[in-house]
Backbone:
């Protein structure tokens, strides 16, 4: 089993982004961070992956769109995050 790719779209100065990254860091997993503060192609990519997303962070684990920081924390509290991170 391979660990799924983790992508997180963030903006500068976003406290929710910091919180989500801190949780991922506590799990000792690597993730790709895409700063979309200034828009650009990565923002467009995020919008195509999560068409209704208007806030950051937006977190993807493998093919699963987790959502934001609150959803990531809820998965962890429910004991489901480790399972998702394991693939």
Residues:
């Amino acid at each position: 089993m391979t660990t799924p790719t983790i992508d997180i779209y963030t903006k500068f100065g976003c406290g929710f982004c910091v919180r989500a990254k801190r949780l991922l860091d506590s799990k000792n997993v690597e993730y790709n961070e895409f700063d979309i503060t200034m828009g650009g192609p990565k923002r467009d990519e995020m919008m195509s992956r999560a068409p209704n997303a208007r806030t950051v962070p937006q977190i993807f684990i493998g093919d699963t769109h987790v959502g934001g920081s609150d959803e990531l924390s809820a998965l962890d509290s429910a004991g489901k995050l480790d399972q998702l991170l394991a693939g």
